[in-house]
Amino acid sequence: MSAFIDTLADIDNVIGDAATSAPAAVMTCHTCGKPLTGSVSDDFCDEPCQTRWLASLAESSPYDGGQSPDEDQPEAAPVTPVASWLGAPPGVVSRAGHELLDAVTTFLNRFLRFPNEHCAPVVALWYAHTHLADRLYVTPRLILSSAEPGSGKTRVLEIGQYLVHKPEMTISMTTAAIFRLLLDGPVTLMFDEIDAVFSTRGGNNEDLRGLLNAGYKRSATIARCVGDAKSMNVQRFPVYAPVALAGIAGHMPATITSRAVTIHMRKAAYGDDPEEFLEEDVELEAAPLRAELAAWAGVVADQVATARPERPEGVRNRAAEIWRPLLALAEAAGGDWPARTRAACTHFVIDTATSQEESTGVQLLAALRDLFTAQGTDRMRTADILSALHALEEAQWSDMGDGKALNPQGLARELKRYDVKPVVFEPLNPGEKAGRGYVTFTTNGAQAQTGLADAWRRYLPPLPSAQA
């Protein structure tokens, strides 16, 4: 044991001699390289050197391989990989606007047989516009009418409830209920069997008609007194909302049709039956389309809200106002949709404007323009005018009700609203006596009136160039 202890002592002596003979290491500052003599830190000579060293680390290249934020690049959400076989996640715009609207049109045509090629695109655009209605100043009403039941009116609403924004489909709803529905912003109101509401036996529905008339504009409100007798206050209810109305033709008030795109539905031809409508399947298939419509509407909302789209010639005043959102959406979609929508606008506003949608006065002005144009004259006697009008077999002038034909007093009464009055005029042919009737030109003095030509320019669309 003593020998082992002596060996350890010898080793300690050797180590001690080596340590004594080696020079002591001098610790220096990591920043300036000065000795750390008197410093309380083992790394820096003073606090400023430590601060400079930390600052140099912050300015140097990152240790994460460049994954730290780049101040020169705008912030963006991280890209989340998605399995390609799942398709685009909900709410993502995965295709161009015109492709999306094509898909909606194809979806509609599976379950419906529209009367012409213009109808399905207009319905698709109307569905899409509901998703940005809160950004628009005007929302067109969509009217679906037909001569007979079973023509597809309700089907448009049934499909639409799974594609529009916040659908509220109903057959009967009180005005008070609608007021409260719209307090939190626009919902899409979809009325079926509206002919029962506005028929002569439908009761007093002036409040509902007033709401539907006013609510096509974003600024519209209706004032109502709320509260009890002791604390009665006037509250202004917002009534702006997209509205679709389906019913049998002939019962819709003109004040509503003038704010609407009207599609006259027809029964499918025998042997041309559409695909069977199974609502639970339609709901599932429509869900991704609705999500895409909402996402796309959000992307183009600013563009559509401020757009001044090109419109067809002859589309003016309220017709131009209600078609503007649809034309703007079509321009945002691109492809052939702008041209298709302008063609549809011409079809519904110019080509197929029916007499049922026009007042008696406008129908009379149109008949007189045809008559004066055919005669190639600027003046006609009242008796000659009435004789020619009564001879029109399919017109109403030979039977204005109760079997009575249009007479001189009725003619004058209708035309007076347009500042057109009967006058005494000189005959065009020598030897004829002065006549009393109507002229196309303005007269002054005791017979002051504006003339038929002025009324035609203001209330009728232009004649085709070949007839003008």
Automatic annotation (TrEMBL):
Residues 264-459 form the DUF3631 domain. Residues 60-80 are annotated as: Disordered. Pfam families: DUF3631. InterPro entries: DUF3631. This is DUF3631 domain-containing protein. It comes from Lentzea pudingi. The lineage of its organism: Bacteria, Bacillati, Actinomycetota, Actinomycetes, Pseudonocardiales.
